[in-house]
Amino acid sequence: MEGCFTTEVSKLARVEADRYLRSYRRMNSLLRSSRTFYRLEADASCLDEAAIQAQMYSLRALVLSLDDVQCRALLYNYYIKGYTLEKCAEIIGVSERGVYRLKNRALLDFWALMKK
Question: pLDDT tens digits for 8-41?
Fold first, then answer.
């Protein structure tokens, strides 16, 4: 029964880390769309770009502080750069199947770092 609980906890950790990392893409697209909108409207008072950029910077710094080079490269290329997992596998030099295992390990490492 202990193993089942541990598996469930690690699954939830990976989901939480994935959700957190995906927020980088949302913030990036929000900044791009808001800049276009505000160029047209000339009123940037309702969007705090500096706060969004600070969140993005801290998220990027957290990814880059991972110890494992492969995990760091995968998370950076997949979440920050927006490459596909297949492209990330090619960049890192692992098989396409191996990149999924690496992603699970990287998300767990990231979650542990996030919780410190």
Answer: 889 999 999 999 999 998 888 888 776 655 544 4
Q: What is the DSSP string of the chain?
A: -HHHHHHHHHHHHHHHHHHHHHHHHHHHHHHHHHHHHHHHH---TT--HHHHHHHHHHHHHHHHT-S-HHHHHHHIIIIIS---HHHHHHHHT--HHHHHHHHHHHHHHHHHHHT-
Alpha-carbon distance of 99 to 87, in angstroms, equals: 10
Task: Show the low-confidence residues of the chain (pLDDT under 70).
Answer: 1-5, 34-47
Cβ–Cβ contacts within 10 Å for residue 90, how many? 14
Round to whole Å and give the CA distance between 26 and 30.
6
